[in-house]
Each structure stands twice: as C-alpha cells, then as structure tokens.
Amino acid sequence: MNPQNPSRIVRLLTRLRDSRFLWDTMGSIYNRHIYGAVSELYEHIAREMKLSGHSYVLDVGAGRGYISLLLASRNPRAMIAGIDYSPMQVREAEKHRRKRNIANCSFGRGNAMAIAFQSAMFDAAVSVGSIKHWPDGVQGLREIHRILKPGGYLMLSETDQGASDDALRSFIRRFRIWFIPDFLLFWGLRHVIFGQSYSEQTLIAALRAAGFREVESQRVPDCPYTLVRALK
C-alpha cells in the first residue's frame, strides 16, 4: 500500500471506499460505469487464463461477476466460484448469471481474509480490483495460495499506484460520471482509489511474501491497472 502518510480526509475516504456499507448502497452505480472503462482488462485476463478440462476457478472479490461470467461462458467445462463480501454485489452477480443462463458459475458471500474452501481445491484463481480493499493484502494472498492446488496459478489485477496523471486523465474519459466534476473525479482517483493502492513493485512483493513463485507482471494498453500472474 501507499508508504506515504495520507491526509486525514484521504484516510477517511479510503476507509469509506473499503466499507461494505458503500458497496451495499452504491455498488450498482459503480458497476454501471466501470465495465466500459476496463473491459479490455477483462478480455485480456480471459484470454490469458487458458483453462483446460474441468478446471475449478475461484474469483476473489467477484463484484458484479464480470470476469467470473466471462470465464464461465468461454470455458463451459470449467466451474467458476465467485465470492464477495458485499451481499448486494453477490445478488447482482447472481441476477446476471441467471439472466445469461450460465450454469457453470456460482456466487456467494466470502471473506478474503478467511476463504471458506478447503486447501488445494482450485486449479486457478483470479482477482480484479479487490486487494486494495482487503484489511491485510498478504493475508488474503496467503489464503488464495492455500486454496490453490500445487502448480495452480493466480491472475491478479489492481489499480496501479504508479499510474501517471496523463493515464488517469485518459481513464476518466472512459469512466466519466455525470454528477461528479472531472477535477473532483481526478482528485479521488489520484489520492484515494489509485493513491491508496498497489504499485507493480509492491504487488509483486506481496505475492512473494504470501509464498507465490514465478511472479510475472503484464501491461494492458490504455488501462492503468497492474496485472500479475503467479504460481503456487
């Protein structure tokens, strides 16, 4: 996370950002705006996760279920389980799963700090835009490491703390929210969303501290997110 000392207002807003109350009340608004801004990221991850046979995949912090449903629709023999700590997000994900009639995917409430699945159960795991909200990122990664089979892998993506101002301004043009002025949206992204997140270096360090190996970073054009792949 950010090694600098954030201001009191940034600390308060970060605490709100990470609260279940916010996601239970405002998550649907976020869902409507974020997909178009990061759809290339989801597509890239879905292509990179070459699932074979009856793979069992865990999506940690599934939100509305974008990547879970994308993986499930493209890999009909795989089984995707998505967990999220917000009941509203779980309901949203289940609603969209039923609407698309996807049977090889399920969603439920879960906590990244104590994942309620047995050890060595999953072939792969994925997490997009979630780790910055966890109370202890390394602990959550250790839990993912635990539930993966030996040789299993994790695809993890998060807002890049090191993203340039120009990259954030370009991102805002795809993420614009009509009732928030661009200057205020930029401030929030710079100081709260991206500013209190992970850089490529700190994300790699957290994965290694959790026991992962062969950690490799990737870049998705025009998307200010860090993307890493790591093996158990």
Description of the structure:
This protein is an alpha/beta fold and 232 residues long. The chain has a single domain, classed as Rossmann fold (3-Layer(aba) Sandwich), CATH 3.40.50. It has eight helices and seven strands, in the order ααβαβαββαβαααββ. A seven-stranded mixed beta sheet has the order 3-2-1-4-5-7-6, sandwiched between helices. β2, α4 and β3 form a beta-alpha-beta unit. α2 crosses α4 and α6 packs across α7. The two termini are 23 Å apart.
Which features characterize this protein?
232 residues, alpha/beta, Rossmann fold, 8 helices, 46% helix, 21% strand, globular
Total of helices: 8
> What does the radius of gyration come to?
17 Å
What number of domains?
1
- Ends: how far apart? 23 Å
Number of separate strands: 7
What series of H and E elements makes up the topology?
HHEHEHEEHEHHHEE
Query: According to CATH, what is the class?
Result: Alpha Beta
Strand content: 15-25%
CATH topology term? Rossmann fold
Q: Architecture in CATH? A: 3-Layer(aba) Sandwich
Indicate the low-confidence ranges by residue numbers.
Answer: none
- Tell me, rounded to a whole number, the average pLDDT: 92
